[in-house]
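Write out this protein's structure.
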Amino acid sequence: MESNPLGGGVGSGATPIIELDHAIGYSGKVVNSVHLHPNATDYVMIAGASIIVSDINDPHNQHFLRGHDDQITCLVVSHGGSMLASGQRGDNSDILLWDYDSKKAIFRLSEHDYEVSCINFSNDDMLLLTTGNHLDGKLFIWDTSNGYIVTSMQLIPTVLSEAPRCISWGGFVKDVKLRPTSNYQFATSGNKKLMIWSLEPSTGALEYELVSTGTFIRDYI
């Protein structure tokens, strides 16, 4: 970090350099704000509008990922550990897809409004599922190899009355002989509703069904 103080440089006139040694703290009020990387050595956390990658064995070994301009509201690490994805709130409620090795953003996904509330990689890390808050009300599925939209849907008010609080992938849909097909499946929950979705990736076709819980009423968080 370079500092350019008022009154000019020190000594020979060279600009003094202030090196950030260590940062303490994270956005603890954000759900799932801390993740252990699959390498079991690093952990990744949200700190305001930045992402901090830290070494468990050396707290002074930190990397700061900057690219958001408002509070980061969701963060996820890919199953293979090669990518991170983060979403934010505000006027630029973008999603950033990061390359883990280089610690650089490779795609900026700019379709949500107001706030990105949930984010998750598919089991094979080929797809990224994102949903917005109640003001946005949208669902997007992205191709992680090129940043293109695979499919999208306006959830509120056509499908749901409130935004999902949780999303989770479940591998692939199975046929009548319990063999995996090429269709992905995932679940969304919130507002006492649990829904199972299937995606045909080549066409972007989405199908969903409400899970019946009988006489039980559950609140999913």
